[in-house]
Amino acid sequence: MSLSTVWTEVDLEAPGRQVGFIRVEHSVHRSAYGTIALPFAVFANGSGPTILLMAGSHGDEYEGQLALTRLIRTLDVSRIRGRILVLPAANQPAVKAGRRTSPLDNGNLNRSFGDRFADTPTGQIAAFITEELLARCDVFLDLHSGGSSLDHIPCSYADLGTDRSMAQRTFAALEAMNAPLSWAQAGCPEGPVAGRAAVRKRVMHLSGEFGGGGRLDHGALDVAERCIYRLLDHLDILEMEEKWRADIRTRFVFNSQEHFIYAPQEGVFEPLARLGETVEAGQLAGYLHRPELPMDPPVEIRFKAEGTVAVIRSMGRSEQGDCLFQLLGETRREEILEMMESMP
Ligand SMILES: [Zn+2]
């Protein structure tokens, strides 16, 4: 029998409710045979699809972590049909530190899903999620927020993938989640993010940004739970409670490079727009000030496109190249349906 460096005592194929850990070998001075213990739960009952619910890929994004720990404590396995895998603190060292990246290796879990997995704790976690968890899944919901440096308007997100049938099924799931903003991107992500691993494994990839600024927001937590439970209902895994049933108005949005505004120089960032505000191309977005050079006038920041303000940098002092704003452009449902029709 071979010994793996990442394993779980949870039986992925057994019925019922199991709560345990995924263990990642981590040999250090104070613990030669030590492990990192990632909390992991499996709920399985009857036949139905398998979904992976994941949060804590970034340790300073809290709404998803809370929604999933609450789900682990309260979900009655006899009510489900299918299998729910739950990873509420995916990069556990980052979660414990309340940081975006792991203090063990500076690893950013959601940038660790490239063509090869790094031989680091974070890389090994990404490899296990891809080869052991996603390989068993039909659907993957990965919960994010803006983290410590960004405030993010609550929205759901979907990678529509590269073929029409998967795109149509993914878009139907995104619509069912019924977040206030529904953000769909066509194709396979180019960066080494979890969505790329999912699209390549032909697993439906859904995600969302729920809050940010390194704090917990109750309104955003509500949107995260709404997305989780409406998705489980849509997949016929778990009937949703009455409180999630009423549809709300959703706007369909997309993203392109001109929606991002980066700091042209260092300074103290003074934003003038608010989250959710609709802005025009050329509109004054904010200033960068340099109190260390008081005679220098502040530098004006202007939007390059029209759109809804989805992201605002939440930290004052900024360096050249920091993302200060991200907009989302509005699109119509019919345009997305038409675009999917033209896919192979
Ligand atoms: Zn994140």
TrEMBL record:
Picking any one GO molecular function of the record gives:
hydrolase activity, acting on ester bonds
Instruction: Output the InterPro entries linked to this UniProt entry.
Output: AstE_AspA_cat (IPR055438), N-alpha-Ac-DABA-like (IPR043795), N-alpha-Ac-DABA_deacetylase (IPR053138)
* Succinylglutamate desuccinylase/Aspartoacylase catalytic domain boundaries: 48-235
Any one Pfam family match given in the protein's UniProt record, by short name: AstE_AspA_cat
What residue range is the signal peptide? none
- Entry protein name: Succinylglutamate desuccinylase/Aspartoacylase catalytic domain-containing protein
Q: Cite the source lineage.
A: Bacteria, Pseudomonadati, Pseudomonadota, Alphaproteobacteria, Hyphomicrobiales
Cofactor(s) named in the record: Zn(2+)
Its keywords, alphabetically, are:
Hydrolase, Metal-binding, Zinc
